[in-house]
Amino acid sequence: MADTIPLVEARSLVARARAGDLGALEQVYRAYERSVYTLARRLTKTPEDAEDVLQETFLEVCRSLGKWRGDGSLWGWVRQVAASKALMRYRREKLRATDVLNDDVAGRADDDVPLRLDLEAALQRLPERTRTVVWLHDVEGMTHEEIAELMGMTTSFSKSQLARAHQKLRVWLGGEGAAR
Amino acid sequence: MNEVRHGTTEELLAVRDGEGTAWAKAHAAACEACGAELYRLEQVRSQLRALPTFTPPRDRWPVIAERAWRERRQRRFSGGMGLAAAAALAGLLLVAVQGTRPDALEAQTMLRTAMARSQAMEQVLKSVDPDARALTGATAGVVVDLQRRLESIDTQLGDPSEGGNDPHRQAQLWNERAGLLSALVDVHTTRVAYAGL
Question: Out of B6, B9, B65, whose CB is closest to A166?
Fold first, then answer.
C-alpha cells in the first residue's frame, strides 16, 4: 500500500508528536488506520483480533516514535510495527507446527480438491503464517529478507511458503492442479 | 529420452519479482506453459492488491490517545512531580523563613492542605485502578482532556517561573490538581457503576 504522508510532512508530524503534540499523533493515526486495520485483518483470524492489533500498533507507535529515523517511509515503519504485533498475537496463541504448509506435515484431506473458491475465500483458507508471507510479499511489497527478519525465519522459508501458497491458490481458484 | 524441465513455482515467482536466474527468465520467455504460469502468478498478485480495504468498525483513537497520554504522564511523573514537589517544598520553606507573619502562616496552611488533598485524591485514583479497564470512545475523550489539563498543572508546578515561590499561587495549583484528580475518579467510578462492574 502506498504511503499517504509525504516524507517531509511525516518528519514534521513526528517532530511535533515527539514534543507531545497529540494532534500530530492523531494525524498519523488517521492517515494509516485503514491500512493498518486492513493489514491486521489479513494477518489475523477475526475482526476483533484485528482491532486489538490496530490499537496495540498505535500504542507502540506513540511509545516508539523516536525510533523512526526519518530516512525511510513512515508507513514502512508503521507497517513493520503492525505486522510484528499481528505475529506476536499469533505466537502467543500457539505455535502450531501444522499451521505451516510443510512437506512433513499432512495437509487437510481436501487440500487438493478443486474448490473454485474466490480469491478472498482462498486467501482465508491459507494457514496464518503462510497467508502472512503472501500478504506481506505480494501486496505490501516486502522483500523475503524483510519478511524473514520479521518472522524470525530464513529467506528460504519465506520463498518456499510463498511458492506453496501460490500452488494451493492455483488449485483452489480452479487452475490446473499439476505440481511444479 | 530428454524431458523438458519446467520452472518451479519458486523460480517463476522470482522471475515475476525481477530476481529470477538467467535460465528461468529465458525459459519462461520461450516455454508456453511456464509463460502462462508466470502470467497467472502476475494476475493473482494484481488481484490480491485489488482486494478491498477494511474500515475499523469503531474509532479507536480516543482509547489509544487516552492510554498513550496516561503512559506518557506516568513516565514523566517521577521526574515532573519530583520537580513540582521540590518547588512546593521551596514555597513552604520560604513561608517558614518569613516566620510568624499571620498571612505567611495562613499561606503555609493553605499550601499544606492543598498538597495533602491532591495526594489523597491521587491515592483514590490509584485504588480505582483505571489502567485495568478498557474505556469507551466518549469516556476516553473526557479522560484525555482531564489528563491534558492535569499535565499542564504539573508543568506549572514544576516551573519556578510560574509562581514557584508564591505559596498562594502554588496552593491554587495544587487545589486545581486535586479537583482534576477528583473528576478523573468520578469519570472512572461512574463508568464502573454504569457497567455494573
Answer: B9
Interface of B with A in 118-177 (CB under 8 A): 144, 148
* ipTM score: 0.83
**Does any domain span residue B118?**
yes
Number of domains in chain B: 2
Helices and strands in chain A, H and E counts = 8, 0
> CB burial class (10 A; 0-12, 13-18, 19+) of residue A78?
buried
Question: Highest mean pLDDT range out of A5-14, A99-108, B34-43, B127-136?
Answer: B34-43
Cβ-contact A41, A50 below 8 angstroms: yes
**Which residue range forms the structural domain that includes residue B80?**
61-195
What's the Cα-to-Cα distance from B184 to each of A44, A125, B80, B189, rounded to whole Å? 35, 46, 19, 9
Question: What is the residue extent of each domain of chain A?
Answer: 7-93, 98-172
Nearest-neighbour CA in chain B from A6: distance (Å): 21
CATH topology of domain A7-93: Rna Polymerase Sigma Factor; Chain: A (1.10.1740)
Q: Output the furthest CA–CA distance in chain B (Å, rounded).
A: 114
CB contact under 8 A, B144 and A29: no
pLDDT in tens, A52-104: 999 999 999 999 988 888 888 999 999 999 999 999 887 777 555 455 555 43
